[in-house]
Amino acid sequence: MSLEISPSGQPFGASVTGLDLSRPVSTDVATEIRSAWLQHHVLAFPDQQMGDDDLERFTRLFGPFGDDPFIAPIPGRKHIIAVKRAADETAPIFAESWHTDWSFQEKPPAGTCLYGITIPPQGGDTLFANQHLALEQMPDTLRQRIEGKYAIHSARNAYAPAGFYGEQDRASGRSMDIRPSADAEATQLHPIIARHPETGREALFGCAGYIIGIEGMEQAEAWELMTEIFRWQTQPQFQYRQKWKSNMLVMWDNRSLLHMATGGYKGFDRLLHRTTIGSN
Fold first, then answer.
1. Rg (CA), the chain
2. Using CA atoms, how far apart are residues 122 and 269, in angstroms rounded to an integer?
3. For the segment 97-145, what is each residue's pLDDT rounded down to a tens digit?
């Protein structure tokens, strides 16, 4: 079979068939996948029988492993995280808010790979928002207010001991092994408008949540602007909805997208294994 790339019919995203990811991928095919990834931003590979070795080997085709803080890897692995939820779990859905993975790092990851192992019969879709489109369609008046500005990113609201996934969350019986830390208080500056390092195309980078302020602005003024950007960048016309099936691998470009988890599968177990593609 030859590689077949089928656009989703939504504003972006595509499915890829015609290859077996339990086997090594040739350099030529990896180049073709990377090109499709840069074009479509989200790629879904259905019907893949992958073990953890296969997932790691695939991830390494596209860069080094990224550094995943605050979440413990699965036993016996350094670079695989279990995104899981028990059928009877009552803690809030993990990552059910718009974000860009680890934007608070000095070099945020290029992308993420997520492999579906136990997938409920309903719910659990992942939403993505294209930040190239959001910037390109942004009103000039709003763009002028953010041009040249830097956002202050931090994990404190999520992973500090007092954060959303902090000590109180650990006591809630969450099945994921999240490790809050005072390290989450650190801050990092990134431009609000960033140029994609591979395509050169400009995009909005990050959103309120991991963004806690804007350099050189009073907090109240910064929050008002961040809220206005957030409302704009997450609109339905910029979105793609990924529906999951067991044995499906999904990879996305962290540099051009926001994403968020959704619920709707109460009473069902859910398990996916995740790797991070680091920035070169």
1. 18
2. 11
3. 999 999 999 999 999 999 999 999 999 999 999 999 999 999 999 999 9
Q: Which run of H or E residues covers position 52?
A: helix 52-60
Three-state DSSP class for 125? coil
Query: CB–CB of 86/265 below 8 Å?
Result: no
- Give the model's pLDDT for residue 171: 84
Using alpha carbons, select from 195, 212, 116, 110 the residue that is nearest to residue 156: 212
Residues 172-204 pLDDT 10s: 889 999 999 999 999 999 999 999 999 999 999
**3-state DSSP helix/strand/coil percent for the chain, to nearest 5?**
25, 30, 50
CA-to-CA dists, residue 214 to 22, 221, 276, 277, angstroms:
45, 9, 27, 27
**162 CB contacts (<8 Å, ≥6 apart)?**
none
In angstroms, rounded to a whole number, what is the distance separating the alpha carbons of residues 237 and 138?
12
**Counts of helices then strands in the chain (DSSP H, E):** 7, 15
CB 43 within 8 A of CB 14: yes
